[in-house]
Design brief:
The complex is a heterodimer of chains A (313) and B (520). Chain A has 313 residues and is mainly alpha-helical. Chain A contains 13 helices and no strands. The chains are: A mainly alpha (313), B alpha+beta (520).
Chain lengths: 313, 520
């Protein structure tokens, strides 16, 4: 087990290095100048050049790269050009809305997907099953921004039940902040429920065909007990995988949904950083996101051991 | 009220006042006085994004000016008729007979947000920082010999040559000559301490910027007068909230979530009208233009530039960009009617769409490869739409067009390099003083630098009387039409929305809220 963990940590470092290099190269070769963006449209070339020097952007790229790697080795993600604060601090500021949005979206997605997926598998071939399949196809196809704008129109604009955008002012209560997250969470939850539903259905169908399920029924167990105690438990591994990946996706920032609803989360931070060419934030944020993906994958792999005693590392 | 007729003094004053009255306004919302202003309340203002800085000297971005003008003040500002009017200065400067020395008396009893009293030393230090940090300051610095205190309550600026736009530069609210405490002038700025009616309480980037009433503020006496006059501070707090997505701003305005929503696309007018906010229209707001690269490439040839000017149909470009004649006006003059800078010279070269004439000029230029690289961005959708229409008219005239649509960050980088583009599209609000526009600077992309340009602009900037400046402006404008460093497309209007409970907001290119108040 320890050896397994050590191997995974070494793998994490390798992934981080590759991501750091790729991100650095891509954003540096992308046209656009953070100094010009910061100084505004009427800044002179001299002013822009001076700011580039001040920010160290005029140094040779290999030197900037080595400096960046050195900072990373010390756990320093650098300083945001635009926000003039450490990248870690900028990410920490965005963590709260992203955390709550992820949690709420995941709850909605699993609350939809688990019962619906299980029911669809049990009632395979019926009208219910076909409806579920059609609905999940629709929700996986619909653009999240369209769904977001639609929900915004109905619940925020027409009915006025929920706010249109933002995350509440400085004196907003937890309740107010959560109310700002309801619509985006519903959007993300519904859109992401599609994939989880399909995975649950497929996984359950596989398990329901197995001999031990037939045996359990033959022993006279109730259908509920057969499904919940035996079938679901054995169908969990692929379900955990897709939920884990969905979580990682949500944590990394639901870019479009955050933009539509004006949420100051990690996704909108990355988008803003790209538009502003805030290199340290882009690099730092993508590195953190990559690390989250790897760690969540590790967590899921470890959860397999809990779910399936046969799995040992 | 947004009548833009800068005071010029002398005999023109009466003419302009009449003109201003005759113009009238077609704004859909004017500051009403139906309710008695009461103190109190907090407003939320939705803006187009997060400002890159809160240092008003270091950026020319309008968003920076909109925010920081509540916290910082300049020596001068602009009144409702766009005349320069004193703000931190006691009165307009005393100018020596040779036009080289400006003595600016200061108001007394002004307190900074940190409690310190403002004095001449603070003003001198701030102006020096302005000349070193701000692009407008650097522009002025080339002509400034010295800045020093003239006693405890006055400052003196000595010039190398007469420079009429100086007070206008000192009045502008971006790249602004704001006054800060002399001990808090670090670059970059770490403390944001000004004399303005509101002070910074908190800034959470991409979430809000929170300003609270500064109780130690000393307003000018009298009544509000545009950006000048009294600043009443009714509101307890102003929160600026970045809402970058235009559709989200529209829906926010319809839902009435914010007290003020800036920069709404004009096509949302009917939808906003039907919602819970009042429409605010600023007519006219500004002018889009196609800037031509006179330094390098195809556009370095004046005949080619004249051909482009002749080929374009600005009416179609404006219609494509704004879709409704309520939102634009065909006008080839650099300033609209009502400004002393308005002339009738533009009609001769404007909106011709003369493909045959343009082709003749192009043929005379004997160009091997008539490919025009047009640099534009969908960051401003109307830029992009104008570019599309322009491209078609240019093709009919015999040009080839290479349309380069990039994001704004790429555009701002590329336009600094004359090797990379021939035409780019930009826009600006109507600025009360022509020297505030970017084109008079040789460093501005376009790099217009010819003997005629230098002669006409120098004469204009060194003119000693307002009448003389108005006369000389015609020469500058004619030089623009003849040498074509840029092509004005027209005048356009801007749209915003305010809550029905928010009063006292004057439509302005850089919205301000110090006289605003909430009603029940």
């Amino acid at each position: 087990m320890l050896r397994y963990l050590m191997n995974r940590i070494v793998g994490l470092i390798a992934v981080m290095f590759i991501v750091a290099t790729i991100v650095f190269v891509i954003i540096r070769v992308t046209p656009g100048d953070p100094a010009a963006v910061m100084l505004g449209p009427e800044a002179s070339q001299q002013d822009i050049a001076a700011l580039r020097t001040q920010l160290g952007l005029d140094r040779p790229l290999p030197l900037q790269y080595v400096t960046w790697l050195g900072q990373l080795a010390r756990g320093d993600l650098g300083q945001s050009i635009f926000l003039n604060k450490p990248v870690l601090s900028a990410l920490a500021d965005r963590a709260e809305p992203t955390f709550w949005l992820t949690l709420m979206s995941l709850l909605i997605a699993t609350a939809i997907a688990v019962p619906v997926g299980i029911l669809s598998a049990i009632k395979r071939g019926t009208v219910l099953d076909q409806s579920v399949l059609s609905f999940s196809m629709f929700t996986s196809s619909v653009p999240s921004f369209w769904l977001g704008l639609l929900l915004m129109q109905v619940f925020a604009v027409k009915l006025g039940w929920l706010p249109v955008s933002g995350y509440g002012g400085p004196d907003a209560s937890i309740g107010t902040r959560l109310s700002h997250l309801i619509l985006p969470a519903v959007v993300l939850g519904v859109v992401n429920s599609a994939l989880i539903t399909r995975f649950i259905r497929a996984s359950m169908l596989d398990v329901l065909r197995d001999d031990y399920v037939r045996t359990a029924r033959a022993k006279g167990l109730t259908e509920t007990r057969v499904i919940l105690k035996h079938a679901v438990r054995n169908a969990l591994i692929p379900i955990l995988t897709v939920i884990g990946l969905t979580t990682a996706l949500l944590i990394s920032g639901a870019v479009v949904t955050e933009t539509v609803f004006g949420l100051p989360g990690v996704g909108s931070l990355v988008v803003s950083a790209v538009l502003r060419r805030d290199y340290p934030v882009i690099q730092g944020a993508l590195l953190v996101i990559a690390a989250i993906y790897v760690l969540i994958n590790l967590f899921i792999d470890l959860m397999y051991m809990v779910v399936d005693p046969r799995v040992r590392y | 009220m947004n009548v833009r007729t800068p005071r010029l003094g002398g005999g023109l004053k009466g003419v302009l006042a009449t003109t201003a009255l005759a113009i009238g306004l077609t704004m859909l919302s004017t500051p009403t006085l139906a309710a008695t202003p009461t103190k109190g309340g907090t407003i939320s203002v939705a803006t187009i994004g997060e400002p890159p800085t809160l240092d008003p000297m270091s950026s020319t971005a309008d968003l920076v000016g909109i925010l920081t003008q509540h916290m910082f003040e300049t020596l001068y500002t602009f009144d409702a008729k766009w005349n320069v009017t004193p703000l931190l200065a006691e009165k307009l400067p005393e100018i020596s007979a040779d036009g080289l020395t400006y003595t600016i008396p200061l108001r007394t009893g002004i307190t900074f947000h940190d409690g310190a009293r403002m004095d001449a030393a603070d003003v001198v230090a701030s102006l020096k920082r302005w000349t070193e940090t701000a692009s407008r300051g650097k522009q002025a610095a080339k002509l400034i010999t010295n800045i020093d205190a003239s006693g405890d309550n006055a400052v003196r600026i000595v010039l190398k040559q007469p420079y009429a736009p100086l007070t206008a530069l000192l009045a502008m609210n971006n790249s602004a000559a704001v006054v800060m405490p002399k001990g808090k002038l670090a670059s970059p700025l770490t403390e944001f301490v000004g004399t303005g009616p509101y002070q910074l309480k908190a800034r959470v980037p991409d979430q809000y910027i929170q300003l609270t009433r500064f109780e130690g503020y000393k307003s000018r006496d009298g009544e509000p007068d545009g950006y000048g006059g009294a600043r009443k501070q009714y509101l307890d707090e102003i929160r600026f909230v970045p809402v970058t997505n235009a559709n989200t701003r529209i829906e926010s305005a319809v839902a009435g979530q914010y007290d003020y929503v800036d920069s709404l696309p004009v096509e949302s007018r009917d939808k906003v009208r039907a919602g819970r906010s009042e429409l605010v229209m600023l007519e006219p707001f500004g002018w889009p233009r196609m800037v031509l690269n006179t330094k390098q490439g195809l556009m370095a040839d004046v005949k080619i530039r004249q051909a482009v000017q002749l080929a374009l149909n600005e009416e179609d470009m404006l219609f494509a960009a704004f879709g409704n004649k309520d939102f634009y006006t065909l006008n080839g003059d650099l300033y609209p009617k009502g400004y002393p800078w308005a002339t009738q010279l533009g009609a001769k070269v404007y909106n011709k769409g003369d493909a045959a004439g343009a082709k003749k000029l192009l043929d005379e230029a004997k160009v091997a490869n008539p490919t025009i690289r047009i640099l534009t961005s969908q960051q401003y959708e109307f830029h992009y739409k104008m570019a599309l229409v322009a491209a078609e008219y240019l093709k009919v005239a015999g040009f080839k067009v290479d349309m380069q649509v990039v994001d704004w960050a790429t555009l701002t980088q590329r336009r600094q390099d004359p090797a990379l583009w021939d035409v780019f599209i930009t826009h600006s609000p109507f600025l009360p003083e022509p020297a505030l526009i970017d084109f008079p600077s040789k460093d501005a992309p376009g790099w217009w630098d010819t003997p005629r340009r230098n002669q006409t602009l120098d004469a204009f900037n060194q003119a000693r009387t307002p009448d003389e400046r108005v006369k000389l402006w015609k020469d500058v404008q004619q030089a623009v039409y003849d040498e074509v460093p840029f092509i004005k497309v027209g005048d356009f209007n801007a749209q915003a929305a305010r809550a029905k409970t928010l009063e006292g907001v004057t439509p302005a290119p850089w919205p301000y809220f110090w006289n605003a108040y909430k009603t029940k």
